[in-house]
Amino acid sequence: MIKIGVDANGGDLGVEATVPGAMRAVQMFPDIEIVLYGDENKIKPLLTNPERISIVHTAVTMDMGEHNPAWAVKKQKDSSLCMAMYAAKNKEVDAVVTSGPTQCVIMAAHLIVRRLPMMERVALCPIIPNMDGKPRLILDCGANVELKPNHYGEFATFASVAAKEVLGIENPTVGLINIGSEPGKGRQIDQEAYEYLSNMKNINFKGNVEPDQLIDCPTDIVVGDGWSCNIAIKTLEGTAKGMGKMLKQEIKASTGGKIGYLFMKKNLKRFSMRMNSKEVGGAMIFGIGAPVVKAHGNSDAYAYSSAIRQLYNMVKSDLINKVVASLPKNDEEVKSGE
Amino acid sequence: MIKIGVDANGGDLGVEATVPGAMRAVQMFPDIEIVLYGDENKIKPLLTNPERISIVHTAVTMDMGEHNPAWAVKKQKDSSLCMAMYAAKNKEVDAVVTSGPTQCVIMAAHLIVRRLPMMERVALCPIIPNMDGKPRLILDCGANVELKPNHYGEFATFASVAAKEVLGIENPTVGLINIGSEPGKGRQIDQEAYEYLSNMKNINFKGNVEPDQLIDCPTDIVVGDGWSCNIAIKTLEGTAKGMGKMLKQEIKASTGGKIGYLFMKKNLKRFSMRMNSKEVGGAMIFGIGAPVVKAHGNSDAYAYSSAIRQLYNMVKSDLINKVVASLPKNDEEVKSGE
């Protein structure tokens, strides 16, 4: 049995999304068990099928407007977010999904679940939908605003193992986010990271990836610091959403548009699905002792079931242990590829 | 008469776009004169109406694949790009438009036209189309990968004057690109820049702007370093282009889509025009002694005429002198707002 902990109070929809999401996931996998950390009184009426789903009660929810994540995590040990994380730490569950505030999730992962000894940093790694329908991994998307070259190496290694084990990509390719394709581009750190990644033998590094390529990305994985990747992914999300909104406005603006819509309804549905992040699951937190997924704040039941499927695959493939085996122990090992 | 110099050999289409673009611009403004720097033998057959358009011959074109911009600018003084810049320096023309390689354009602006004494840095400032149809300025988009807080102040001042004089925006608002809305977000430099901009009395600073807001931007101007803004704008452009391509693919994928297209052809045309950068002109180079616009490499005649209109407005409004008058002479003046 694979046991997944769910922060049931978290997210914009709370139990309205987490409970049906859990029930859906249980139907998908016969060898899954779910523990809902959340408000029993709210969960019970929604839990129409409690098969392989248990509840650990807490009415406390981490505040989305929390400005001091470290303080919040230490202070609110009885929040649904922290309780799920403690369960992962104590091996009561194998993995955790939460839609809590991003910085609190990262902090709780760090302080409660704990960093792997060979990882100096923790990274947030969302899966971005791409034009060809294949997912891409981009990290770090927000856990560290500044990095050293070896951190890029850690992240590239972690993501390469995850891409293979979770997404089934053989020999996944790695790119470095940069404002130009040539090696000498970008800031000092980007040039150093390029050099470092080029010398690594345990990853398949393909050079720089420019931000305008992200939606049609030449590599399976893109690494960068939390500042740069965060700017890129937020711009991508905002632009995609804005474009969809503009398209709707223009279609509704005339009778011709409305009639045309009736003919191409399915086409437009497929169009909007191609960039739908609910399909691909949430952002993974890499570098800690258990698989943790941060789902979008606006996740619905479907998005939660996708995130649980993602965690199921991470646990089933024994991702963390495989990463530990792959992580180089020192710089020399990186270069020799042993 | 306002004299505009055009790097006629530059860009993907070269004289095929610059010559008809110049002829179109001359028809738009009775008080404009254009000098085409380029290959006379190629220009003459296309110049069907030479009214107020003269040619300064050079067959040399700056190579788009140039890896060492400083060297290229010094070595290729007889290129159409450099000749137009020298003409601006020597006041033979009032302003210059070019589609040459971005880093060479910035370098030529720097080395030939020269930086204004009170500007420590030069910035590349494209105009980005927005959902509400109103243009926004974003800078620096590539001239400097790292900046000090006072450089953000220079850029905000320059762009504020330009937004007022060229785009007609009264009391334009300024935002700082950041990964969160609160003042304490981002790297050390972003926090310092926030503080610096907050203390400036000659600009209308509104705080942080998140990258997902860029397409529907709450401020008229967004400032940031060349690394961050470049990532944002490239992601925005790539995503918008990719989304357009996906929409086309989905529409073409079925008969229903094709029929629907016939009904909403105009709607889709308006949709694609809303994010069309050809409409809004090119990227302005701020901080040098003359207005220079870097047009997109793929600019057509229409895009050139837009860029020339933009330069016309910059010269007509006496932008450079107004900026010089607005730029604070020292830090104290910034804070007192004198």
Describe the fold and architecture.
2 copies of one chain form a homodimer. Chain A has 338 residues and is of the alpha/beta class. Chain A is globular and about 60 Å long. Chain A has 2 domains: 1-118 and 287-338, Isopropylmalate Dehydrogenase; 120-242, Isopropylmalate Dehydrogenase (3-Layer(aba) Sandwich). In chain A, the strands form 2 sheets. The first copy, chain A, has a 7-stranded mixed β-sheet, with helices on both faces. A 5-stranded mixed β-sheet of chain A has the order 6-7-10-8-9, with helices on both faces. The first copy, chain A, is built from 14 helices and 12 strands. The longest helix of chain A has 27 residues, at 226-252. Chains A and B meet through helix 8, helix 9 and helix 10 of A and helix 8, helix 9 and helix 10 of B.
Number of strands of chain A: 12
Spatial strand arrangement across the major sheet of chain A: 3-2-1-4-12-11-5
Count of helical segments of chain A?
14
Cα(first) to Cα(last) distance of chain A is 34 Å
SS-derived structural category of chain A:
alpha/beta
Domain count of chain A: 2
Characterize the biggest β-sheet of chain A: 7 strands, mixed
What is the largest interface, and how many residues per chain? Answer: A-B, 57 and 57 residues
- CATH architecture of the largest domain in chain A, by name, is 3-Layer(aba) Sandwich
Strand content of chain A: 15-25%
- At the fold tier of CATH, the topology name of the largest domain in chain A is Isopropylmalate Dehydrogenase
What is the CATH class name of the largest domain in chain A?
A: Alpha Beta
Helix content of chain A: 40-55%
